[in-house]
Amino acid sequence: MGLKENIQVVKKEISTEEQFLEGMIKSERFFKRNKKYIFSAVALIVLGVSGYTIDTLMTEQRLKAS
């Protein structure tokens, strides 16, 4: 019985590892396919946040100056 149980445990572990690898491969394919869009979105977010911060700082300086 111990050998059969060990075989079942090994099969479950292999199945889990296969699922993990499949997930990694799928995410890698998704990233490769949409890399330009992902980088563009990140760049737009960074530019938007920096623009908003600069605008806020300039508005505060104008209020202090007047």
β content, as a range?
A: under 5%
Number of domains: 2
List segments where confidence is low: pLDDT < 50 over at least 5 consecutive residues.
none
Fraction of residues in helices? over 70%
- Our Rg estimate from Cα atoms comes to 26 Å
- Helix count, DSSP H or I runs of 4 or more residues: 2
| Content-based structural category | mainly alpha
The tally of strands reads 0
Mean pLDDT: 90
**Euclidean distance between termini CA atoms:** 86 Å
| Structural shape | elongated
Largest sheet entry: none
Q: Which H/E pattern describes the elements?
A: HH
How do the helices and strands line up, and which of them pair or pack?
Elements lengths: L1 H32 L1 H31 L1
Tags for this entry?
95% helix, 2 domains
